Amino acid sequence: MNDLAPLLTPEGRALLDAVRGTDPADELAVATRLRREHPAELVSAALGQARLRQRAAAKFGASDAGRMFFTPNGVEQSTRASVAGYRAARMKALGVTSVADLCCGIGGDAIALARAGIRVLAVDRDPLTAAVARANADALGLADLVEVREADVTDVDTSGYDAVFVDPARRGGRGRIFDPEGYSPPLSWAIGAALAAPRAALKIAPGVPHEAIPAEAEAEWISDGGDVKEAVLWFGAGEPGAVRATLLPGPRTLLGAGLPDPAVRQVGRYLYEPDGAVIRAHLVADVARELDGGLIDETIAYVTADELRPTPYASAYEISDRLPFNVKKLKALLREREVGILTVKKRGSAVEPEELRKKVLPKPQGRNSVTVFLTRVAGAPTMLVGAPAGPAAGSVAAVTAGGAS
């Protein structure tokens, strides 16, 4: 899709309605039928847009995605609506009434900001991407609050806005870019733009080295449904140098207290797996203190404790067995326990969970379920066997049925 305009015509919109929800297996037959009355290029564009809308539903919800326009890169790189909505709500709470959204992409963040009642200047240098962002603001009834401008963000004057939001491109022709100075624009430029604004938020990759974070910023790692989505550097909000992990839905936020690493201790009755945002934010020590626990190994982000304490920041498992890594022993144990549902997790192990699962449980041995952790305990390769603990144990076991993670 190199030209959005034909899809915005009455004929294009009618075709989009006609192909809505088309099953991929039926595309050829649908295309053949529609090409009898419509240009082939327009039919192909409409079917392509239908596929993108189906993919985008996971991020934007079926209602919004069914009205919006997308590019392949836009679907892949846009912010999940729940995350954009959380960030927009935080901007609103800070008193922000106008934002310059630099590198706006297809407009996901601009939409969330506008829905929070914030006036947005959305800027992207790619003509098609800017056109899609403009079409999306119009499709969702937000055109009065969102001005889309096709321009290089480094040339845009943001002095008239309460805040700046920058989402640099982190992918290039060869895939993902890990060096922040390889972003487009580079992180150093984005930081300069942020420092020049009253308030700012910079979206960066969650794996950014902590030493790359400027002292003036608060760093926040955000997960949604347990999956780490992004890190954000906030300027003019919170405390400079502060670190936090935010979990969605909620939100639930853990603000770091600057604690030293927890001590290593013997594996207790319970094992806690911290949320990915907690791990990325280096706040495992804060969770360990909350749980009165310690680490099983100084390099592994698993917390162990003797008591079960509810926490939103980690998943709890009750450990029944601790074994040195041994495939035959694990296979025998699963047979003895009549296990039919096995979840394999790993941290600090080179073993692939799915390969191990095939070896130790080629077929169900019964109806029981267990979770096996491949990890290190005090430096030694170890298998910890257990099951989800607490009120959610039943639902967790059902979700992981037959799977490996």
Q: What is the structural class? A: alpha/beta
Give the overall shape. Answer: globular
Outline the biggest β-sheet.
Answer: 9 strands, mixed
Distance between the termini: 35 Å
Uncertain runs are 392-405
**Count of DSSP E strands?**
18
What amount of the residues lies in strands?
25-35%
Q: What spatial order of strands do you see in the largest sheet?
A: 3-2-1-4-7-9-8-10-11
Q: Roughly how much helix do the residues carry, as a percent range?
A: 25-40%
Radius of gyration: 25 Å
Number of helices: 15
Description:
With 405 residues, this protein is α/β, with parallel strands linked by helices. The chain is built from 15 helices and 18 strands. Helix 2 (10-19) packs across helix 4 and helix 7 packs across helix 8. The longest helix has 21 residues, at 40-60. Residues 392-405 have low confidence and may be disordered.
Based on the model shown, name its key terms:
disordered C terminus; seven-stranded mixed sheet; 26% strand; alpha/beta; nine-stranded mixed sheet; 18 strands
